[in-house]
Write a structure and sequence with these properties.
Blueprint: H1 2-24, H2 26-31, H3 39-45, H4 65-68, E1 94-95, E2 105-112, H5 116-130, E3 136-144, H6 152-165, E4 170-174, E5 178-180, E6 194-195, E7 199-200, E8 216-220, H7 221-226, H8 240-249, E9 263-266, H9 278-282, H10 285-288, E10 300-306, E11 311-316
Parallel strand pairs: 2-3, 2-4, 3-11, 7-9
Antiparallel strand pairs: 1-3, 4-8, 5-9, 6-8, 10-11
Pathway: Protein modification; protein glycosylation
Family: Belongs to the glycosyltransferase 7 family.
Pfam family, one: Glyco_transf_7C
Length: 317
């Protein structure tokens, strides 16, 4: 009798473990957490527009069907290597395919400070990734060189202004510690702002909460202008909640691609301390966003350098 009870307990424990594995599997959870644009509808949801000063001598337009349906996963080890020879990346980190006319121009904007080794790996990986997508793009690295607390949102504003002056219709704000894993995650803007990094390894590829809007995001330049960018007051804070609140106030919804396409690898690093006045700023977003943002942006431009792989904007805030 005792032997039977013991076997029954083992069976129940085994069933419990199996059910738990199924329930906690990242793919199952990710698909249940948010609505997304299906692969079949991605092309219809993209904003087809190139930079105002961009021209191509190619005869035919680039085709994006195979890119969007590419289900391969790029190895993270690419970040440890070097770019292949003959990459045709222009000074300032600008690239466009020669064999076809791209339909999209994207400015990738990276707020940055004190992560030189991580930045190197990011640049190598991102160029290898983006060159596969047949888009026209340029990478901007906006570095805060003063000793004040890091102000990510203000650096994003500065990068956006530089990119919009260069005529880029699509902005991608990107953390330097994030690498996209799926080539099908096209770095182009959708009609609605897109949370690109909705499935990150750190969170077991599960979206922690629906209002999360950070890491890697895309937004049309016109929409970013419409909401007056982001607050310039987030010293020591991320500021992405401010961006979400501004979009919400303007009744602009956000969108995402499916979890598998939206997978990213996040490098681990010491977490920065968040300051206490974050909630105070967020509580007054609606009252202050018309006065605090792109129209109130003030900073000192220390230097702008066109490096082989990126445009380096150094600023004192």
């Amino acid at each position: 009798m005792r032997h039977y009870v013991f076997k029954k307990k083992i069976l129940y424990c085994g069933l419990f473990v199996i059910i738990l594995i199924i329930l906690l599997h990242p793919d199952r959870n990710a698909r249940g957490t948010y609505e997304f644009i299906t692969k079949e509808n991605i092309l219809n949801n993209l904003l087809k527009e190139t930079a105002s000063n961009f021209s191509s001598r190619a005869i035919s337009d680039c085709d994006y069907y195979d890119i969007i349906n590419d289900e391969t996963t790029l190895p993270i080890t690419i970040a440890e290597g070097d770019l292949i020879e003959g990459h045709r990346i222009r000074d300032g980190g600008e690239y466009a395919p020669l064999d076809c006319r791209p339909k999209f121009s994207t400015a990738v904007i990276v707020p940055y400070r004190d992560r030189a080794e991580q930045l190197r790996g990011f640049l190598v990986y991102m160029h290898m990734f983006l060159r596969r997508q047949h888009i026209h793009y340029r990478i901007y690295v906006v570095e805060q060189v003063d000793s004040r607390p890091f102000n990510k949102a203000k650096l994003m504003n500065i990068g956006a202004v530089a990119a919009m002056r260069a005529g880029y219709p699509c902005l991608v704000f990107h953390n330097v510690d994030l690498l996209p894993l799926k080539p099908g995650n096209l770095y182009a803007c959708t009609k609605l702002p897109r949370h690109m990094s909705s499935s990150i390894n750190k969170f077991r590829f599960v979206l922690p909460y629906l209002k999360l809007f950070g890491g890697a995001i895309s937004i049309a330049s016109k929409q970013f202008n419409e909401i007056n960018g982001m607050s310039n007051e987030y010293f020591g804070l991320n500021g992405e909640d401010d961006l979400f609140s501004r979009l919400e106030s303007h009744k602009i919804k956000l969108t995402r691609f499916e979890p598998l396409t939206s997978r990213y690898y996040m490098f681990s690093y010491p977490k920065q301390e968040q300051r206490q006045h974050r909630n105070n700023i967020l509580n007054h977003v609606k009252q202050t966003m018309s006065m605090d943002g792109l129209n109130s942006l003030k900073y000192t431009e220390v230097a702008v350098v066109l490096h082989p792989l990126f445009t380096h904007i150094m600023v004192d805030l």
